[in-house]
Design a protein that fits this description.
Length: 549
């Protein structure tokens, strides 16, 4: 007996159609479409093109009173008209990226519950244990291929924001679409609500998350294990990106699951690849070899360790022993320099605990170690003081300064400070964008050291090749691909990352390198096309309305 044929999907009409962001065109519905789809009288009579709509959106964005208002305006647009939202972001990447992601997303997360507009993504709470598979199956859009998940325990440099951290997976996946060309329906943001240790949030009458302390130990591990197993069952072959977990959880989760499914931690591995790419590019400016660099990290969490591990592996590839390579990287945490004699070190810091007398502050560490690279991953505003930067400049002709902490309010220094306190000799990049700096007759353009240069292209390459695992070598390939995208013109301006208007190009280049490696390592499940670059470009989502009826 043949199976009963499935009925054709019902054509949406009228107000139901206008409320479906995936198919809504607003004023771009043609006159014939308005007749057949029951839209007469529900829209103004003018019929607009998509570029005309984008122009109106950008006019409204620029009229908003603050960046948070701009973020919320764009978020509301996303809920109403998905195609128009992504076309606007794609066509105005450099202007909209700081609004939909860093630095504005930090404040948006802090106010997520109070400014809540409409549900987006999935929320899996501690009380849902035993039925997480059922929750995932409720997601209405088929074809999910990439999930970004956070438990909100370490959002940017802002700490534990609980459920309010949902803004991060939403923002990351927006970049997957706008920069990496991943289709919107393939993206699923997830918030794992395991409670929060942020007392102010639990006492906030508008907070939308669980009002209980965070799960710890076995209870937390059980929740994560059920979630990962459910993801593998409901969305087989999906790419799972762990995002903004606390240091302890982040390292443990990566170690536990990296060999079980296609997954990675962007805070550790993505940041590591981005930092290594910036270092490669900076060496083109100062003409020095990687093996002569000494790095001092202000901060000893995921970002610092991610870069340190990536640089260590790169140094080993250039002939240093692992011990020699690790001694090129020094960490400073909240209790001082990470040295072998300390008994209070977490396990992930121990490989970088070297023999050295204790030093309690950053300026003393800079003076003693004479680093050529100073990396800020501390979440501490103005940690790179005038005294620290001048001390750094005394020890090196062209020091590299990476003030990576987000949002801008947590940056270790500004671009202007980095240049002014080093007499313009610093090579500078930051986690949040800064405008060009005029120093005498010279204009210096700071780069933005943002993971958006890595993970959208990495994800695209993994999806295009059907990769079953994510390897460290793929992040090395991504770092090289990013560094190769920095032009001579960028270098002349002092910029060690490409302009953000080129993020889509960068993502394509990264994707090709990553996919090539997936095939070379035997980890690709998709047939290899004759021309990988052309095939990947053909896969990339272009935000446009289908032909009008």
């Amino acid at each position: 007996m043949s199976a009963t044929p499935k009925p054709a999907p019902r054509q949406l009409t009228g107000t139901v159609l206008l409320r479906d962001a995936a198919v809504n065109r607003d004023t771009a519905f043609s006159a014939p479409a308005r007749e057949t789809l029951g839209l007469l009288g529900l829209l103004p009579p003018a019929v607009e093109t998509l570029p005309q709509q984008v122009a109106r959106v950008m006019d409204n964005v620029r009229r908003q009173a603050s960046d948070l208002d701009r973020h919320l305006y764009l978020r509301a647009l996303h809920q109403r008209n998905e195609t128009l939202y992504y076309r606007t972001v794609r066509d105005h990447l450099a202007e909209t990226l700081p609004l939909i992601y860093t630095p504005t997303v930090g404040q948006a997360c802090q106010e997520f519950s109070r400014r809540f507009q409409a549900p987006h993504g999935l929320y899996v709470a501690a009380q849902d244990r035993g039925r997480i598979r059922d929750i995932l199956r409720r997601w209405p859009r088929p074809g999910v291929r990439v999930i970004v998940v956070t438990d909100g325990s370490r959002i940017l440099g802002l700490g534990d924001l609980g459920l309010n951290g949902m803004g991060i997976p939403i923002g990351k996946l927006d970049l997957y679409v706008a920069c990496g060309g991943v289709r919107p329906e393939a993206c699923l943001p997830v918030l794992l609500d395991a409670g929060t240790d942020n007392t102010a949030l639990r006492e906030d009458p508008f907070y939308l998350g669980l009002r209980q302390p965070r799960l710890q130990g076995e209870a937390y591990d059980t929740l994560l294990a059920e979630f990962v197993a459910a993801v593998q069952e409901v969305f087989p072959g999906v790419l799972l990106q762990f995002e903004d977990f606390s240091n302890h959880s982040a390292f443990a989760l990566l170690q536990r699951y990296r060999d079980q499914l296609c997954c990675f931690n962007d805070d550790i591995q993505g940041t590591g690849a981005m930092g290594l790419a910036g270092l490669y590019t900076a060496l083109r400016l100062n003409g020095e070899p990687l093996t002569q660099q000494r790095l001092l990290f202000a901060g000893a969490g995921e970002a610092a360790l991610g870069i340190a591990m990536m640089v260590t592996s790169a140094l080993v590839a250039q002939g240093l022993s692992k011990e020699e390579a690790r001694r090129r990287c020094w960490l400073l945490d909240s209790k001082g320099l990470v040295v072998a004699g300390r008994s209070d070190l977490a396990e992930h810091k121990r490989p970088y605990a070297h023999e050295h007398p204790p030093l309690l502050d950053l300026q003393a560490a800079v003076a003693a170690l004479r680093p050529s690279v100073l990396v800020g991953a501390s979440g501490t505003s103005q940690l790179f003081s005038e005294a620290v930067l001048r001390e750094l400049a005394r020890g090196h002709a062209r020091p590299l300064v990476l003030a990576l902490s987000n949002p801008t309010s947590r940056a270790e220094c500004t671009a202007e400070q980095a240049y002014a306190f080093t007499e313009g000799r610093a090579i500078f990049a930051s986690g949040s964008p800064y405008p060009p700096v005029q120093l005498g007759e010279t204009t210096l353009v700071p780069g933005q050291a943002n993971n958006a240069y890595i993970f959208p292209g990495l994800g695209l390459g993994l999806l295009a090749s059907g990769a079953t695992r994510v390897t460290d070598a793929m992040f090395f390939a991504a770092a090289r691909a990013l560094a190769d995208q920095v032009s001579a013109s960028d270098l002349q301006q002092g910029r060690i990352f490409p302009g953000q208007e080129r993020l889509r190009e960068v993502a394509t280049a990264v994707a090709v390198r990553v996919a090539e490696l997936a095939y070379a390592e035997g980890l690709a499940s998709a047939p290899r096309p004759a021309d990988l670059d052309t095939a990947i470009r053909a896969l990339m989502f272009e935000p446009d309305y289908p032909p009008r009826p």
